[in-house]
Amino acid sequence: LIKAIKLHDSVDSTQNIAHRLAEDDALEGTLVIAEQQTSGRGRMGRKWISPTGKGVWMSLVLRPKLPLQVASQLTLLTAVALCRALRTVAAPLEIGIKWPNDLLINGKKISGILLESTAEEERLKYVIAGIGISVNLEESDYPQELRDIATSLRLELGRPLDRAEVIASFIREFEQLYTAYQKDGFGFIRSLWEALSVSLHKPMQLKTANGMQIGTPIGLDESGALLATFENGATIPIFSAETLPAP
Ligand code: BTN
């Protein structure tokens, strides 16, 4: 799958570079990696801290032949690939997936995924899968307000990791899952995701059509939506939301 790796010292965001390349017809499998990002971005318009040489900041150009509605399956696939990769290089850390796509250790975030897609006539034109992994960040790299909710593999393991190994491990897992997904569909990704998830069977606040409600996620449906049960007994698919722990 990986056709070209574009290495940069400092960029605003690897997402921007990858979008530009994709617009210029870059092949599926073009991977942009930077040592530092000056405007790394996360979901919901949040800032993503990306200090020099401390993490893996990368964006992958994908051109899946899929209808627009199933783009979220790619997010879940990416989370599974990343979780498996990090469990391998950072064993014995117990890394889990918080729906839809954050990776956590002991409730603290170590990695985030940002999928940005562009469409043409209801088909995906291309997708940029952005991946941020806090590999070797130290406590002083985090602003005070993030110290209780974010961590790095180094802080959890007590030793630094080789970032090239982390990237290689991700590429191996992603290639395997993406190839199998295109051949066999979403079913096995769904089972892998459910097994690695730390979001199931615990009540949490979920954004539904009726506003924020406390529900208990029980799994994924075949499209990739989160199935949650609510106090009135209804089970509803949730497509996108901010989740918060139940008060
Ligand atoms: C999130 O958890 O909100 C998603 C974070 C995604 C961060 C990565 S780092 C590489 C790529 N470039 C960006 O600007 N963002 C993504």
Automatic annotation (TrEMBL):
EC identifiers of the protein: 6.3.4.15
Residues engaged in binding biotin: 37, 41-43, 109
Catalytic activity reported: biotin + L-lysyl-[protein] + ATP = N(6)-biotinyl-L-lysyl-[protein] + AMP + diphosphate + H(+)
Keyword DNA-binding: yes
Keywords assigned: ATP-binding, Biotin, DNA-binding, Ligase, Nucleotide-binding, Repressor, Transcription, Transcription regulation
GO molecular function term, any single one: biotin--[biotin carboxyl-carrier protein] ligase activity
Coiled-coil residues: none
Keyword Ribosomal protein set for record: no
BPL/LPL catalytic domain sequence ranges: 1-182
Family membership noted in the UniProt record: Belongs to the biotin--protein ligase family.
Role of this protein: Acts both as a biotin--[acetyl-CoA-carboxylase] ligase and a repressor.
Name of the protein described by the UniProt record: Bifunctional ligase/repressor BirA
Provenance organism: Paenibacillus solisilvae
Residues of the full protein shown: 78 to 324 of 328
